[in-house]
Amino acid sequence: MTQLHAAAPSTAPPDRPPAPRRPPARAPRGDRLVQWLFVAPAVVYLLAFFGYPVVQNLVTGFQDYDTSSLYTGDAPFNGLHNYAEVLTSGRFGKLVLNTAVFTVVSMVAQFAIGFALALFFVRRFPLNGLVRSLLLLPWLVPMVASATVWRWMLDQDNGVVNRVLEAAHLAPSGGVPWLSSVHVSLYAVTLVNIWVGIPFTLVILYSGLKEIPTEVYEAAALDGVSGFGRLRHITWPLLRPVVTVVVVLGFIYTVKVIDIILVVTGGGPADASSTLAVDAYQLSFKTFFFGQGAAMGNILILVSLVFAAVHLRLNRAAGLQEDAK
User: Fold this and answer.
1) Could you give the CA distance from residue 312 to residue 252 in angstroms, rounded to a whole number?
2) Are 216 and 234 in contact (CB under 8 A)?
3) Are 219 and 158 in contact (CB under 8 A)?
4) What is the phi/psi pair of residue 223, to 5°?
5) How far apart are CA 157 and CA 184, in angstroms?
6) What pTM did the predictor assign?
7) Which residues contact 206 (CB under 8 A, 6 or more apart)?
């Protein structure tokens, strides 16, 4: 006779819902106060030297602010009159074109040369550090001093650039009118700006390249990936955040360049090398139309913000596509 045995009860504990996570403990009020005290000097500095000037510039762009306002303090509100004067002037289109050419050519050349130098210096070779340090000199020399030297070098009659080009039979006998030609002066100041900006691009990209693990390249070499393949599929994707910083900061620095242009060409001849930033300076401190100068500066701020937002969004979309692959 078979015996039926009852199934032994399960000893496993019943399923229980996971215990709720405890929120992170908040710092005591005294500790938070100490933290804010450490941050407060930086906040005060930013508000005083960056926040207040930006807000004041925005306000001035909507005021009829002239030399009498400096004494009386009276600057009546005039709405969009300053922006209308700036945008409808016959010079605005030319200034926009000059700014676009100056910015685009400078950024492309600076990035191409800086990236090539960063790839070169990331390898080890004798005197690497010394040569890299010498390439930082254009970045360390004051802008006015660099621009003054370049003005002498680009002089049509006695400049060393024309002397070298004539000796190599690359320039006419009279020399190239770098500073006095309406067709060449813009490219002359662009050349100077490229020379000044290469070290910045080199330093940032070199730092990014040094952060890429060497093990990734070693694994790629074992898989037979070529040099260009490593650059395309390893270096560039991993360097994208650094490239974003270089492009955004490079655009902001380039679009507001004033000192180089004022010293080398003064914006001439006939506004051939003038940009929006130079015109904002001249409106404010030469013709004393402070409201129109502020309006031009606000336009530059808006352009920089739009460029940064669009570039960051496109870069994020490209990163998501790479991750999806």
Assistant:
1) 14
2) yes
3) no
4) -85, 0
5) 16
6) 0.83
7) 117, 118, 121, 122, 132
Largest Cα span, the chain: 124
Place of tokens 């004798």: 126
Tell me what the mean pLDDT of segment 252-268 comes to: 93
Going by the DSSP 8-state scheme, the letter that residue 222 receives in this structure is H
Whether pLDDT at 113 is above 80? yes
CA angle 273-277-52, nearest 5°?
170
The residues, ordered by sequence, that sit 6+ positions from 288 with a Cβ below 8 Å of its Cβ are 66, 67
- From CA 200, how far away is CA 319, in angstroms rounded? 24
Angle, vertex CA 88, rays to CA 84 and CA 94, nearest 5: 135
Alpha-carbon separation of residue 291 from 85, 251, 252, 278 (angstroms): 10, 25, 22, 15
d(CA 115, CA 76): 50
The amino acid sitting at 190 is T
Spell out the long-range contacts of 279-287 with Cβ–Cβ below 8 A and sequence spacing 24 or more: 279/91, 279/95, 283/86
Which residue, 84, 82, 96, is CA-closest to 279?
Answer: 96
Q: What does the DSSP assignment read for 116-135?
A: HHHHHHTS--TTHHHHHHHT
136 CB-near residues (< 8 Å, 6+ apart): 199, 202, 203
Sorted by sequence, the CB contacts under 8 Å of residue 279 that are 6+ apart come out as 91, 95, 267, 296
80's enclosing H/E stretch is none
Phi/psi at 272 (5° precision): -70, -30
pLDDT (0 to 100) of residue 25? 55
CA distance 248 to 241: 11
Question: CA-to-CA distance for 100 and 300, rounded, in angstroms?
Answer: 12
pLDDT tens, position by position, 286-309: 989 999 999 999 999 999 999 989
Q: How far apart are CA 306 and CA 312, in angstroms?
A: 10
DSSP 22: P
What are 155's two structure tokens? 């002089």
